[in-house]
Design goal:
With 331 residues, the protein is of the alpha/beta class. It has one domain. The protein contains seven helices and eleven strands. The radius of gyration is 19 Å and the shape is globular.
Length: 331
């Protein structure tokens, strides 16, 4: 696969990782000793976190989970590890559940990279990146050929999942023959840039709440923290999830239908009007009603970067907008 989008990513992250103190503490094994687990076989049920035996909705979502591998022993996730599969199921509940009751959820297991790989050089990272991207590409092409049955579909992910889907769109979109079936690509926690869009005319950002076939991308943070956000790339084109436009004006908290936060048992609590949102210098600046709810002690991102809550902060708006875009699809 082409790696045209990865050099910029690693050049930026090499400097950004100096701000991520927990990464520096990871004493990873030498790359030469990297253990590469067997690739998932997407013809088998075990290679999927979610795949309905009998689809009940007229629309699908292909969901790729974010980074869950934070240990100091494995460069690549072992898909057969029960602990890793349990960890991958958490974002299925806390993020992909915005699609529940509206779309059939297809979520493959994939051999993702450890967060420590963000500090590698382009050359060292390339073999890991290839494994990561190849797995998701194999899962997606399998899904299209054997599972989709011509239904409209969403692409959705977060963080590493959004990175992979963004890269795959940049590598393949416009040549697959399924582009008209895309309802939208929901890819928060990563960046789609002006340069990406200029060189890929088949990809468009969402500029209306009922637009289809477009991309939704944003990274949440406190005011003034744009330069501290490792996933915010120069030239990001962000969509405001309170207005569903690229407008840089302040969207007041009264437009927020409800942030949803999950406790340790994955029990959700909804907070209406929890935050406003405004696109500033490519970042989505928010003002949470309760900062403690978006503070992760000992987290992997700098203070004021609300990366882990990109879905939670706008959960009910996302759910409502998914229904709106489905209704807007040609029948």
């Amino acid at each position: 696969m082409p790696d045209t989008s990865r050099p910029l990513f690693f050049a930026l992250l090499l400097t950004a990782c100096t701000m991520l103190a927990p990464l520096a503490a990871l004493a990873m094994p030498p790359l030469a000793e990297m253990v590469v687990p067997a690739a998932p076989d997407y013809t088998q049920e075990a290679a999927w976190l979610a795949k309905p035996a009998t689809p009940t909705h007229t629309v699908d979502v292909f969901f790729v989970y974010p980074t869950i591998l934070f240990d100091d022993a494995n460069w690549i996730m072992d898909p057969s590890d029960p602990a890793m599969r349990a960890a991958a199921n958490v974002p299925l509940v806390q993020q992909a559940s915005v699609f529940e009751g509206q779309a059939n959820i297809y979520a493959p297991v994939y051999r993702q990279m450890n967060i420590a790989a963000l500090g590698l050089s382009d050359e060292d990272a390339a073999p890991i990146q290839k494994i990561v991207h190849d797995d998701v590409w194999q899962a997606f092409t399998y899904y299209l050929k054997y599972e989709n049955k011509g239904r409209p579909f969403f692409l959705a992910g977060h963080s590493q999942g959004s990175m992979i889907l963004t890269d795959l769109m940049l590598d393949h979109w416009g040549s697959l023959g399924v582009e008209k079936r895309l309802v939208a690509a929901l890819l928060p926690g990563w960046s789609m840039t002006t340069d990406n869009l200029a060189s890929h005319p088949s990809i468009a950002m969402c500029e209306r709440s009922d637009q289809t076939g477009c991309v939704i991308s944003y990274n949440t943070m406190a005011a003034g923290r744009q330069k501290a956000a490792p996933t915010l790339m120069p030239g990001e084109v962000a969509v405001n999830p309170l207005t569903w436009t690229l407008d840089t004006g302040l969207a007041p908290a009264k437009l927020n239908l409800g942030a949803v936060f999950f406790d340790a048992d994955n029990t959700p609590t909804t907070y209406p009007h929890f935050t406003s949102a405004q696109i500033v210098d490519g970042g989505l600046v928010v003002q949470p009603e309760d900062v403690q709810l978006v503070t992760v002690e000992g987290g992997h991102f700098p203070a004021g970067i609300y990366h882990a809550f990109d879905y939670s902060l706008f959960f009910e708006n996302l759910r409502e907008n998914i229904a709106r875009r489905i209704a807007a699809m040609p029948h």
